[in-house]
Amino acid sequence: MITAAPASEVDQPLGDAVDPAFVARFAQAHEEAGFDRVLVGYFSNGPEGAVVSSFAAAATRKLGILLAYRPGMIAPSLAARQLATLDQFSGGRLALNVVSGGNDEDLQRDGDYLNHTQRYARTEEYLQALKAIWTAEQPVDFSGDFYRFQGASPAVRCSQRPHIPIYFSGASAAAVQVAAQHADTYMLWGEPLASVAEQVASVRAAAAARGRTPRFSVSFRPIVADTEEAAWKRAAEILEQIRENRTRLGLPLTEHAPENVGSQRLLAAAGQGEVLDSRLWMGVARLTGARWNSTSLVGTPEQVAAALGEYYKLGVSTFLIRGFDPLGDAITYGQGLIPAIHEQVARLAPGNSEDPSQ
Question: Are the CB atoms for 133 and 144 separated by under 8 Å?
Fold first, then answer.
């Protein structure tokens, strides 16, 4: 994940919200480290993601861009042209991470007052409209509960066919139904293995009923070091830094009550223990209220890659990883973790001796 200026839970931004030189360096570091794509987040109090994505694409040669995009902010007819244009200028490197929103205060900053059920109904309609325009040969008429337009032009084509890949996240029942209909890749946060297996099975079943077979992605915040002891020492230091920052900023450390189901699931898992499975660390999720991707796999690159391999066996084929020192960790991941992940997946690939299906 890249941001438009240095920032993380342990590095609160103090300068300008947009640092072009940092964005270029950050994107290039991911490309050099061997990342396939980089996530550009959606922030109601930060720089606009499509513009950041355009800049990051121009600063790199082959790095894919996963743009977090919130339905409802821009009319779908305009969004179809905007996103197709970005896909063309990036040379077909764009993917869309559709986020319906899970916090009322955050949504209301941008004037969105729909409730949870309405938001997902709007998202379904929005994606239906986008795909209709992207795949049309003639002008598109559309009439729904949230959007209506006549003669929307499909002249601006996506570079990719049939359209830009759609990634989708959301853990509620409403989200799963939208994902089943539209997601090319369904994204989960880093829950314990049993919980991820449950979610994968649920989405697979819902998608199969519609004749679809989405891929799956899981997000983690890996903490790696040359030794396991050093990795856990760094985890403790990170937790203390976050505690100090939240105390200084007057943010809560306990009694969290997140609105979205994904955060509720992470907090429930954190209630089971500090470390789950072999090395899934819940410390930051518990401290921050799990409002975002906040669980870590802790250990050496080889140990973390082996833990990711267990998720691969469940059908997960994409790992979204970012660190608490975003730029420094991206470089570190390229030196050890990413090669170790490729080696682990190669060992588990169909036909190899460790293939879990054999």
Answer: no
Same fold, 1-164 and 219-348: yes
Q: Does domain 219-348 match CATH 3.10.310.10? A: no
Nearest C-alpha neighbor of 188 from the set 262, 289, 115:
262
What confidence score (pLDDT) does residue 249 get? 86
Per DSSP, the three-state class of 83 is helix
Kindly state the average pLDDT of the residues 242-261.
87
Give residues with Cβ within 8 angstroms of 236, minimum separation 6: none
Written as six digits, the tokens of 353 are 């001796």
Q: Which helix (H) or strand (E) holds 66?
A: strand 64-69
How do residues 291-309 score in pLDDT, each as one tens digit? 788 999 999 999 999 999 9
Task: Give the DSSP letter of residue 325.
Answer: S
Angle at 331 between CA 328 and CA 333, to 5 degrees: 105
Q: Map tokens 């189901």 to a residue.
A: 261
The ranges assigned to domains in the chain are 1-164, 219-348
- Sheet of 64-69: strands edge to edge? 37-40, 64-69, 94-98, 166-169, 185-189, 215-220, 318-321
pLDDT at 353: 55
The model's pLDDT over 109-156, given as tens digits with 9 standing for 90+, comes to: 989 899 989 999 999 999 999 999 999 999 999 999 999 999 999 999
Per-residue pLDDT tens digits for 155-179: 999 999 999 999 999 888 999 999 9
Distance CA 330, CA 222 (A): 10
* Fold of domain 1-164: TIM Barrel (3.20.20)
